[in-house]
Write a structure and sequence with these properties.
There is one protein chain. By secondary structure, the protein is mainly β. 0% of the residues lie in helices and 53% in strands. It has no helices and 11 strands. Strands 2, 4, 5, 6, 9, 10 and 11 form a 7-stranded mixed β-sheet that branches. Strands 1-3-8-7 form a 4-stranded antiparallel β-sheet, with no helix packed on it. Strand 4 and strand 5 form a beta hairpin.
């Protein structure tokens, strides 16, 4: 069983930055793609960013390209999401997730492709 714990969320003004962290324990995720998803009130959970098992390839939701950066440190079992130039529409609960299969390429974006999820961290961007 793998556990994922997100941290780093909070309240920030528009244009500000936050860095989300995801700490993984219980089982190695070094062969798994990792993703960040978000869910705003009344909306479905959506893909934000993903990274392949090796870290060699990334993918982003169009609206966050150029503002968000996903990275991972397999040695430390950590995944990060650097969020810059934040906008009010980025407000949501952000979730870290580990893919079901190993060695996937390219990055998978469907919620159903991810098996293990964290509890989420709230990000609120004020205008």
């Amino acid at each position: 069983q793998v556990q994922l714990v997100e941290s780093g969320g909070g309240l920030v003004q528009a244009g500000g930055s936050l860095r989300l962290s995801c700490a993984i324990s219980g089982r190695s995720i070094s062969t798994k793609a990792m993703g960040w998803f978000r869910q705003a009130p009344g909306k479905e959970r959506e893909f934000v960013a993903g990274i392949t098992w090796s870290g060699g390839s990334t993918s982003y939701k169009d609206s966050v390209k150029g503002r968000f950066t996903i990275s991972r440190d397999n040695a430390k079992s950590m995944v990060f999401l650097q969020m810059d130039s934040l906008k009010p529409e980025d407000t949501a609960v952000y979730y870290c997730a580990a893919a079901r299969a190993s060695f996937q390429y390219p990055v998978v974006k469907s919620v159903n492709e991810y098996r293990d999820w964290g509890q989420g961290t709230q990000v609120t961007v004020s205008s």
